[in-house]
Amino acid sequence: MIFNKDTAEKTAEFLLQINAIKLNPRNPFTWASGWKSPIYCDNRLILSFPAVRNYVRDEFSKNIEKQFGKPDVIAGVATGAIGIGMLVAESMGLPFVYVRPEPKKHGRQNQVEGFLQKGQNVVVVEDLISTGNSSLLAVEALREAGANVKGMAAIFTYGFEVAEQNFKSANLDLFTLSNYQNLLNLAVAKRYINEDEEQILREWNVSPSTWTIEV
């Protein structure tokens, strides 16, 4: 679910402007999972554009507090959301921790890095939601550490049905600055893509794991 429509449209426009989101329906990308995709999203680029990162920081800060109340701690999911999560925590005057994909193999073998007390209210910041699996592993680690995870806030989601099911199963609310639907609407309106390309992108979103481009 998006925080609000105005933010969703503005965020989508920024992501397209800085090439954080690339649309290439005729020559698809290959994801690490092996899926073929007409879209590629790299929200790490946001950190390199001060005006965009400040916008994302400010929208996160006000909407997190509005939706979840002010938490005790902001947690970022490593590695993509560490930078923006830190900015949000700083803006809200809150402590920050980050969550590794798995515990370290040496030293204290931490998975949650930073100071976190049992019972503290935590909102998790994420950069991108695809299936939601890796994001929810971070939530599980925080819960195992004794945190009360109030919800997750992400920059962008592809809006896959499997992600919705995964978050529902985990009993966790997800809110995003923007999503796939708002992105496509804006991309057509601003002529990043034509109507035929829009149709390709919509077809992919229905079944991304089996989608192939017709030659």
UniProtKB/TrEMBL annotation:
Keyword Cell wall biogenesis/degradation: no
Cofactor(s) it depends on: Mg(2+)
Binding-site residues, orotate: S130
Pfam family, one: Pribosyltran
Gene Ontology BP, a term: 'de novo' UMP biosynthetic process
Keyword Transport in record: no
Pathway assigned to this chain's UniProt record: Pyrimidine metabolism; UMP biosynthesis via de novo pathway; UMP from orotate: step 1/2
Any one GO molecular-function label of the UniProt entry: magnesium ion binding
Residues annotated as binding 5-phospho-alpha-D-ribose 1-diphosphate: R100, K104, H106, E126, D127, L128, I129, S130, T131, G132, N133, S134
Family indicated by similarity: Belongs to the purine/pyrimidine phosphoribosyltransferase family. PyrE subfamily.
Protein name in UniProt: Orotate phosphoribosyltransferase
Source species: Flavobacterium xueshanense
